[in-house]
Amino acid sequence: MILSLAFMLVLAQDQERAGFPHGEHRGLFAGCLTCHAGVAAGDSAQARPAAAGCTACHDGSIERRVAWQPRGPRATNLRFDHRAHARDTTLTCTACHASRPGAAFMDAGPARPDVCLSCHEPRAPSHFEARDCATCHQSLRAATRLALRDLASLPRPPSHEGNYIFRHGADVAERPTTCAFCHTRESCASCHVNAGRVPAIASLGEDARMAALASMRPARDYPRPASHARLDFLQSHGPMANASGATCAACHARESCVGCHRSGERAPAIAALPSRGAGAAHGVVLAMTRPPDHLPGFSRRHDAAASAGGRGCQACHAPVFCASCHDGSGRPDFHAPNFAVRHGAEAFTQTSECATCHQPQAFCQSCHRETGRSTTPAQAGRYHDAQPRWAFAHGAAARRSIETCASCHRQSDCMQCHSATRGQGVSPHGPRFDPSIASRNPGLCARCHGFGIPRR
Amino acid sequence: MPGLRAYALVRFRGALGSELVWPRYDDHFDALLAFVELERERWRLRAGRQQRLSGLGHYTFDGASGSWRPLEPLRLEAFAGRGLARGFLEPLTSGAIRSIDPLRPDEATMFLGAQASATRGPWNATAAWQREILADRSVLVSERASFDARGTVGRRLLLQGSIDGDLAAGAVGKARISAGFSSRLGYVEAELFRYRPVFDLTTIWGVFSPEAHHGFAMLAQTGWLRTVTLQARLRHRWYAPVTETTPFLIGVSDQSTEFSLGGRWQRGTLGFGATWRLLTGYGGAQSGADLDASWMSDDERWQAGLLVTAFQEEEQFRVADGTVFGAGLRLRGAFTPRLAARGDLMRYWHRPDEGDAMVNWSQLRASLGVEWTFGASADRVRAR
């Protein structure tokens, strides 16, 4: 019982919402004007039948009762006038209202646009490809009876599907009035950051409903043009922007660029872009992206890129960025927090190549002496604890990592044995030693050899 | 005036407790950078304290530099000025350096050089030359040159190579060639390298015939897991046999190996990481592990982290043996886009090996830093 009542309720609501089932009443009416008498005369009150007329049959005994109500005039931007067409005696109602060519009597519905075009613009391939919209339609801006809801429900032309957004510029140039039939300045300005600078957009009218419609759209996700997918686009987009900045400005605001070009507000190509303003299109949002060559380990292996980078690095980094690591300013991020405690092994093997940033000997000793790890004169065996005869066995270690020796020892420590004049004369030079170095800095050799620098 | 800018990065620092926290903490003020710059479409001039970053390393000097781009892919640079000791920001004649080594020369150094770089698409190459002489132009202090090149093939393959030479000593210095491949699965890199230390001619260390070592390194990092990253590194070195260069021998290995494994789990603003590493071979052995947990606020203004560490060293002929445990925390906050502070605190406990009478490393290390940015800074976090 309950299910039956629910079914009837749903059926009644469906009937109320549905259009009139013309086909089911085909045998009852001799012609269209029986119900739509006012159409030809332009009498809108008589253009649709009253619901009371249904009860002549749908009284519950002859036929079941129905809850059908005629629809009111449809909100539309059509300029159609039945009276003008009614004067053409060759035109019948079914010529326009038949649901399809050759349809049976009362198999009818709204007039089909292709039928309209068959007379008014017979060369148009389809409704949405017709050029003269004004014959049948008001522009949406002029159709003030259309509410926001009506505008939102309008069909999207098939041509606008797919990647039309990349082609629409050509259409605008070719037939701007067609676009202007549906679009107002707000339609374009919801995406185009530079809407105010584009004459084609500025010439469009304004409409509050369109502005509201644009504001209801979710944040615009700008599609990526094919040119931006090029492998070297990141490197090559600068010259492109300089050459055709106006094209970039369609989607990019100044703020789009400074997301990466953080010091580039004054770069000509960026400064020429419109700034993101209140109520204007947001433009493409670009977060600072890691360039493709900044692969893992780049923070330690960027010397070649940095030396060649020049302005490329500066696009994202200020000079202080480099100094923040390279001089160990207030951000010792390069070395781990506990690096100072355990750096000995890394320093010996030169994993971090300490001398790249630190003056050998001077920088290391400045700390080692403070912490008591550097002794002058050397106290044999105190630190090289595992080798009691270290003084006679240190040669291999010294050759392999003499920077480590210099991190604690003064030159004078070594000269105690290795100086020819002040020490024991033990030569520190290896077999491939080049004595010609004396010609470049004689004072260096004189430090151990005095005035008697050997020629060979 | 368009293109006229001034940059300065200055640092005030002091030790709030012990002065043994970090090298040079007794140097209370430093101007790390301070220069004015005039930039035009094709050239740029700088004057003041500035840095040179190249395959030859990191040098700071007080002077002038100019760069010129005569053609789009090519950039030429030249620079000259007073040289500063690396990591010191002071000339070699400063009292701080002379107190360490009285044998340093009395004259400061002049630092000059030139560089040519070319960039074409994803490829770039740089040739650099630089020279240091004493200010009285009497002798050469150092002369070095380098060549670097790097580039990507497609979106996946990164190739790079570099070599530098010590022209003063007539020796090849560091050299490296590497290839890295990235995909959705992750990133792998292989590298061949050579290392030879370079000393300037103001010290005797360079004439002690330092030996080069060679090696290879490999890195693999996962990329297919959304929240977890795993990483493995291997580095192996071969040292030249030195039996022919010194009569004093010691039974040490001619090879050393470093190996590390790490992982990181990151979900939203929470992250956990773990790393284990092992270094064996010539020079000592060290193993250690770190565990950390970190949190970052949604707007990235506030960060906090906990770190637990442990490592053990067994030296062959150097400082000390023992095991160290540590725990601490790091905090970082950006009060405004211009004012940020960071601090870290670590407590270490040293457990010396039995019978080891070396310096006890047990210590508390803490640092507090405040960063205040004036004017425009490209790297300042901007409000979105």
Distance between the termini of chain B: 29 Å
List segments of chain B where confidence is low: pLDDT < 50 over at least 5 consecutive residues: 380-384
Largest sheet of chain A: none
Strand/helix succession of chain A: HHHHHHHHHHHHHHHHHHHHHHHH
Tally of helical segments of chain A: 24
Mean pLDDT, all residues of chain A: 78
Q: Structural class of the helices, strands and pairings of chain A?
A: mainly alpha
- Give the chain pair forming the largest contact, with residue counts: A-B, 118 and 150 residues
Rg result of chain B = 24 Å
The Rg value of chain A, from CA coordinates, equals: 43 Å
Summarize the amount of helix of chain B as a percent range: under 10%
Straight-line N-to-C gap of chain A: 120 Å
Strand content of chain A: under 5%
How does the major sheet of chain B shape up? 20 strands, antiparallel
Low-confidence stretches of chain A: 5-17
Question: How many beta-strand runs of chain B?
Answer: 20
Estimate the global geometry of chain B from the Cα principal axes: globular
Write structural notes for this entry.
The complex is a heterodimer of chains A (456) and B (384). Chain A has 456 residues and is mostly helical. In chain A, 36% of the residues lie in helices and 0% in strands. Chain A starts with a helix and ends in a 7-residue tail after the last helix. Chain A has a domain at 30-73. Chain A has helices spanning 2-17, 82-86, 93-97, 113-120, 148-152, 168-174, 176-182, 185-189, 199-202, 208-216, 233-243, 245-248, 254-258, 268-271, 303-309, 311-314, 319-326, 339-349, 362-368, 395-400, 402-406, 411-418, 437-440, 442-449. The model of chain A is unreliable at 5-17 (pLDDT under 50). Chain A is rod-shaped and about 135 Å long. With 384 residues, chain B is mainly β. Chain B has a domain at 286-384. Chain B has a 20-stranded antiparallel β-sheet, with no helix packed on it. Chain B starts with a strand and ends in a 12-residue tail after the last strand. Mean pLDDT of chain B is 84; it is low at 380-384.
